[in-house]
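Intended use. Records like the one below are meant for learning the mapping from a protein sequence to its folded structure. Do not use them to infer anything beyond what is encoded.
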Amino acid sequence: MSRKPVWLIAGPTASGKTALAIHAARRLGGEVVNADSMQIYADIPVLSAVPSADEQAGIPHHLFGVLDASERASVGWWARAAMAVIEDISARGNTPVVVGGTGLYFNALTEGLAEVPEIPADAAEAAGAIAEQGVAPLRAQAEKHDPDGASRVLGDDIQRLRRIVEVGLATGRALSSFHGDTVPLLAADNWRGVVIEPEREALYARIDARFDHMLASGAPEEIDALAKRGLDPDLPAMKALGVPQLIALRNGEMTQAEAEEYAKRESRRYAKRQFTWFRNRCADWPRINSLDPATARAQFDALLEGETP
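Structure written out for the chain above:
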């Protein structure tokens, strides 16, 4: 691999990661690699805020919209795909700029990926049945199978809780027990990380405004196309921010006002969980604290100057 370090740009939803990653790629001669678990899916570019064609112009982008909504992308799948892309970019002498808000993806790169056996269908279905009962019984089962791992899952992160239960049912072991022998996918001296951490209330206001923009920019049409396919509502893409609420609106189960408020509230809650994750797991990464694109670029450039020998 090239000596050029891999740049990791993390942060909560709507914090300006796309703009900063594109700026970083232009400065560094780089290519952008997606580290957002929803931007992987081709069916929801508006609701997952995939960079537009204008934003991507002139900068190669990878792992955006590469799976169908009927598929499930695990952390392991993403890590393998991302490393193949990163190695290819580096081999061509360019700088990989990995950007997103999915903390587990960054964790896989910098701390390693546990080699968990494939989960058989019966264990996955049993865990799914528990998840359908609600967060409380799912968390109770997760705590039974993996007390240490479950204690680190914040709020109602159903996907992570379900994963703990699946592994426990399939293997009889705690998911966290597989993490002891992990090896980082990126060498410690071959990556640099930065977290965008703006003032929280300002970010919440931006989240609300962005959802309004999504509604005016094609989100209802995305929902119509998804709903007509009759996909399993438990699929990751069907749980993307805004999707359940807008499907409920389409089905007459919510009013427009209820769907909008609920979707915005869920997005703000998700951002809060992301803040907590990055503060706990990326505590020593430099911070960029502004939502203003020009200020964020200036702060990143100052960070680059500090990296220069």
